[in-house]
Design brief:
The complex is a heterodimer of chains A (about 250) and B (about 240). Chain A is of the alpha/beta class and about 250 residues long. Chain A folds into two domains: about 140 residues, 3-Layer(aba) Sandwich (Rossmann fold), CATH 3.40.50.300; about 60 residues, no CATH class. Helix content of chain A is about 40%, strand content about 25%. Chain A starts with 5 loop residues before the first strand and ends with a helix. The relative contact order of chain A is 0.17. Chain B has ten helices and no strands. The interface between A and B is medium-sized, with 29 and 24 residues.
Amino acid sequence: MTKAMIEVTRLTKRFGDRIAVDHVSFLAKPGEVVGLLGPNGAGKTTTMRMLTGFLPPSEGGAKIAGHDIAADSLNARRNVGYLPERVPVYPDMTVREYVFFWARLRGQRDARARADAVIAQVNLSERRDTLIRNLSKGMRQRLGFAQALVHDPPVLILDEPTIGIDPRQVIEVRDTVRELGRTKTVLFSTHILSEAEHTCDRVIILHQGRIVAQGQPSDLKRKLRPDATLEEVFLSIVGAERGADK
Amino acid sequence: MTSWIVFRREIAQFLTTPFAYVIGAAVLLLTGILFNRDLNISFSTKPADPALVPGILSFAMVFFAPLLTMRMFAEEQREGTMELLLTAPVRELSIVLGKFLGAWAYFTLLLLLTGVYQVILLSITAPDLGHALSAYIGIWLYGGATLTVGMVFSALTENQIVAAFLGMVALMLLWLADQAGQLFSNIDVAIIFRTMSLQGHFSTSFASGLMRAEDVAFFAGIIAVMLFITAQILESQRWHG
């Protein structure tokens, strides 16, 4: 059996009385693209922030490439490339300076060569001396990918990478994610279900911080009826939950 | 290593943004006017003060230090880059140290520029260079300490204006504590206030040409403690998300 690259065990996050993530457990293997699905506020971002080492869990834990996110945080973080929902940039830096900065901060020896390679990989070579403040939103998104990939991490965590960009770029991002998923473990969140259907090997549906369903998109659909869309699957699960709540 | 990378980023930012040049120009204008005045007086009534510029800066830093540090973490919070920094395989203290060294290097550059006043003095009179050197070493350490106080407030809030304002209030209190010492008839209370103030470790020693190990240790201690507190604040922000 292949070793899991992401191993999440009863991961929980409380903010005061509110439980944002409620005992979530799952595994992701190398070369697997896992979609984290759910409406806004389902706990997708909080889960990702715990896995990237930004937020400490309230309970439970996780391992990234075998490194515990709490006890061995620095090594866990070394193995993750992270693209937050809003691409964080330094507007006064050029594309090249920005990627080089992250390459060095993540301990790349040949940082300059790595930065140039990854800039080429995301098709920004022609813009490498452009100030980031002058880049379009789609280009910034590609730049975000570049910083996440610059240290060639085995695990990629992408928070809503297709939000707010135009349809052509959405397709580009999907292709990129699928391409990356051949060699890396990709955890990618979205609230658009058709997107997950096109991109993911497996989806995990989160609702109110808990996993309500997981499996291959086709299996989940088949359970309801053969021609169901993931939207319908999702609504049927969430609807059943609501019914149970009452 | 991490600190060095962050340091280079900070110093590059200081030297490529107009803001740092505006602050630099303001410092040089203020010290230039007062130096000119002191020089005029020195022709008639008293000798020129070799510790004049460091003395002015000891008060001016109450306002300049928070202006230099206000964007340091506040901006990273606002742009979201803090999330990337805190998920990179680096320690908070290395980030904080790199940023501090960047700001301190910029301040050092400003100090070196004011060295031009000493050159002018040397060309027309024979100033006490030992006295001047002591005052410069003092203000260099004092300036470093004020920058770390500014950094604490930049880490505390996302709002740059609030960060600058709170930093100024804190530094003003630390500056006034020196005067407050004079208000108390009880000598022990007065000494406590004086010992806590930043100004008290500069005005009575370095500014008069006196270098005391206890004052150097005081400033080094303030810098270390404030950097540690800043790193702790960053660490604690993880808990709030």
